[in-house]
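User: For my dataset I need records formatted as: sequence, then structure tokens, nothing else. Please produce one.
Assistant:
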Amino acid sequence: MSQLHETARILVEAAASGVACDPIRETIGESNIDAAYKIQDLVAQKRLEGGDTIVGRKIGLTSPAVQKQLGVDQPDYGSLFNTMEVMEGGIIPWEETMQPKVEAEIAFILGKDLTGGHISIAQVIGAIDYVVPCIEIVGSRIKDWNIRIADTIADNASASHFVIGHQVKRLHQVDVVTSEMTLTKNGEKVSEGKGADCLGSPVNATWWLAKTMSSLGSPLRAGQLILAGALGPMAAVKPGDHFEARFSGLGTVHVGFGNSKG
């Protein structure tokens, strides 16, 4: 078994057992982004073979501060699977999470494919059918969130779950750049930001993703959900917590966490 396949197997086993593994970078190197994406693809293939389907993509590392922390100058991406989706206002069983954290994002639902070698930002704007408020639950199969860029990429950009609000708007109906986000936990504010904090605009982040995925031969498709990146810092989670994300001009979205076993 190759090193990449063995590393992918370790991540799959960590997710299945709920027992976090050592950092991936110790095996493939801290800055080996190509190998990290190959591992991500191998783990995704295991999920697909198990019956999961890809329903969209997520963008990570949209904050310049986080990019600097991890020593990179661009975002990363991961896949959204059908089994990650949580209904609006739903409760996520605690045993389904691994070291969860919550962040609030603006998300897009695409109405057109984004293909070709020279995708313009105008094409991206034209392809966005709907804008929705979103809470992403990130998690890590790596012990103690001890991650660098190779770790989070290999671990599907630290994806866990997501929930989208049902207050749907067209892109021209909301200013995604100036929209202000407030995230509360059990009624207390724990994070805030605005659309401009996501690479200047969530549309910019989606443009980067569209060009990247098209160049890799896996273009964004109509009907896919795109999580464009966090607008503020991640918030810690404990069993029983409830979160609300509110976006000015857009709406709200809610999610809760169940109590731990026993």
